[in-house]
Design goal:
Length: 492
Amino acid sequence: MPDIRTRFAPSPTGYMHIGNLHTALFEWLFARHHGGQFVLRIEDTDEARHTPEAVTVIYEGLRWLGLDWDEGPDVGGPYAPYIQSERVDIYRHYLARLLEQGLAYECFCTPEELEQQREALRARGLPPRYEGRCRRLSEREKAALRAVGRPACIRFRTPETGQTVIRDLIQGEVVYDNALLGDPVIGKTSGFPTYHFAVVVDDFEMRITHVIRAAEHLGNTQIHLLLQQALGFPSPQYAHLPLILGEDRSKLSKRHGAVSVMDYAERGFLPEAMFNFLALLGWSPGGTEEILSREEIIQRFTLEACSASPSVFDLTKAEWMNGEYMKAMSGEEIARRLLPYLQKQGLFEGNPAPERLAWLARVADLMKERAPLLTTFTTWARYFFTDDYPYDEKARKRWLTKPDTPQTLRALADRLEALGDWSAQSIEAEVRGLAEELGVSAGQVIHPCRAAVTGTTVGPSLFHLLELLAQQDVIHRLRRAADQFAEDLPAD
RNA sequence: GGCCCCAUAGUCUAGUGGUUAGGACUCCGCUCUUUCAAGGCGGCAGCACGGGUUCGAGUCCCGUUGGGGCCA
């Protein structure tokens, strides 16, 4: 296929939905697989609410996932401008042409009249579509309406008979009856085009070869195909992607909670994991491997392997996959990604020295096996960065409130204080030495120690964990816990 | 309400007329270890239903049901 061109055409609503990003990913993958171009176009004809910030949010989401565009508002391109509100003259030109040819007409019906018409249809049990009252107004009637200052919108004169066949690359052949279609508005009274018109004109003007979009637009394609015929445009190929659903199986939307792309970034997802996860939603590489690199995905991606059925966004599995990427990543790399999260929580200084970064990489290496998200480091592994961490329920119950725990912790603090070589090996020797001295199993020292120093009963190897903490901090934590829980014990 | 789409375990999926229906997440069990929220091993669980077509149907056709989307 020569010169494949796809586009991502979001509305600047001020936030970017994970479902939109999924669509963008597939459009991008198809273009990259074929060595074609991926175009970014901002569709802001609906409202006058296009703000620079809203467009920035879109850039941010695409960049986070690593989807680069070849043409767009910021980078320009041969078919600029790429913001619809700046293309109004182009739409007016085509609108005038349809009007001239009688393929579109002015409609003077007021919103109230339209509502009445719809009501009347509904009352008769018919679908509420525009009946075509203004279809055949004479020049005199039109002049009279204009004279009284009635604003007119422009409607597309759709065929009253026949069928429109969509040959969709994913959904197959879908047939719509033209008789069931009302005449859609294509030009608003404000002079702006509607979504349907702008899309058709832009996809033609920008030489889009493959319109890949979410399945919610499948029904709209009938209008688009008909408009292309009326305008004499060739039709692009269509591929309607299955929708992404929430846990309740309805279209993923704001009310499902965190759905904006940056919410996931904030939650500590790695973009490469999200890329992989999203790619596997509605597309399958065929084999049984699921962890695939970006290059492999690009190379193996085809529309034929896309499913037609919608899929539920499973956050649990996304977290698992993210964990897999964490495990495979170097401590240095994780440390680099981690920094902003830690700094935001006030757990790490700005502009850290190289040795601090190296220390963070060691922490990352120790923790990454059991960290599904980057934010795991600011929650579960908080104790690496501050003395201010909570003792969880299990830690209190199983170890800290045991009668002999304060003594054990103090004894351990004393031994560790005297330790000259602060290494995992020496620490282990001291811990085991104390257990022997007390005549208990090593676990009887290890567990209370972990509970006191980390506040939890779980985590990485205790000795390696302690090694990464400062000697005086560990001693302080041991004594602090000993004091606190000695007081809590009933005196006898 | 009308039109359209979809249907393999709770979830993501493989499967293109003949398979003990495969993999992954989740969950459960066992195991290793100083702990598990980590590792290893194992397990539960699925072709929505009813008719056809066919020697044979998860796979093709029709209907039903269920879910979803669009239209206003």
